[in-house]
Amino acid sequence: MNCVLELKSVAKFVDTCNQSWLKGWNERNGGNMSYRMKAEEVAEIKHLLADKSDWRPIGITVENLANEYFTVTGSGKFYMNVKNEPENNICIVKIDEKGENYKIVWGLNEGGVPTSEFPTHLLNHSIKKEKTDGKHRVIMHAHPANIIALTFLLPLEDKVFTREIWEMITECPIVFPAGIGVVPWMVCGSSDIAVATGEKIKQFDAVIWSHHGIFCSGEDFDVAFGLMDTIEKAAEILIKVMSCGGKKQFITSEQILALSEPYNVNIDKTMLE
Ligand code: 13P
Ligand code: ZN
Which ligand does the CA of 213 lie closest to? Predict the structure, then answer.
């Protein structure tokens, strides 16, 4: 391999950023994404990596991410530009052996640092790595309009958002059977939002940031993107229904739970209580 961009996961990272931009979820520099690379992927490009920064403190300790490599978007970089200039807008970073510091080893050629939400991404990668036996590798944060709109209309409670969004598309409870978490408005990039999201991500794969956006975790790019896409589409339907005078009929709780068996998913019935 002669170029980092030839690595399949880097190409997919770039394409997913572009798909997200095309969806309208990433105005300006809005949103960020990170991918925990596989050891074999790092081995394939190792000869193309070089120290491009000193070790810098992450701000938190993520012991189970020690020595891992992440592909991550740059802070303040516009999603719109990732496809045409990936090497200036994204980077690869290495975590040190204690899980306390990171350094840039590829990308951000015109300067820059990983997303301001990097500590939040890493804390949540750490939690999801443990909870899923290493299966989850992608974290995606974006600003989809209908999800944000709902945070001005519905009570900011996990059960309310889960129920309302599950009900909008029959496949929603199949796609995210655990439901959705919601955190109140918080300063973005702060340790408070990292910890609050981390508490919710133990239970859910998607956490709504009130009046800000959504934070999703998945096994791969398609699963994380598909989760965000499904929730945003359901939110759009809900906004339309609310705008047209509200629901005239409903999917019942019994009907939602009836999906568990044929689709072999464990829909959390406590979210409907
Ligand atoms: P960054 O440009 O630092 O990634 O911030 C964008 C954002 O959406 C913050 O929540
Ligand atoms: Zn944001």
Answer: 2
Q: What is the pLDDT of residues 89-132, one digit of tens each?
A: 999 999 999 999 999 999 999 999 999 999 999 999 999 999 99
Q: Which residue has the tokens 């509200």?
A: 246
Q: Is the dihedral of CA 228, 230, 236, 241 positive or negative?
A: negative
The pLDDT score that the predictor gives to residue 265 is 98
Closest CA to 106 of 9, 194, 208, 249: 9
CA 187 to centroid of ligand 2, rounded, Å: 10
Is the pTM here over 0.85, yes or no? yes
Residue type, 207: V
* One-letter identity of residue 146: N
Q: Tell me the ligand closest to 90's alpha carbon.
A: 1
Instruction: Report the pLDDT value the prediction gives residue 24, as an integer from 0 to 100.
Output: 98
Residue of 83, 88, 78 lying closest to 26 (CA atoms)? 78
Q: DSSP code of 205?
A: S
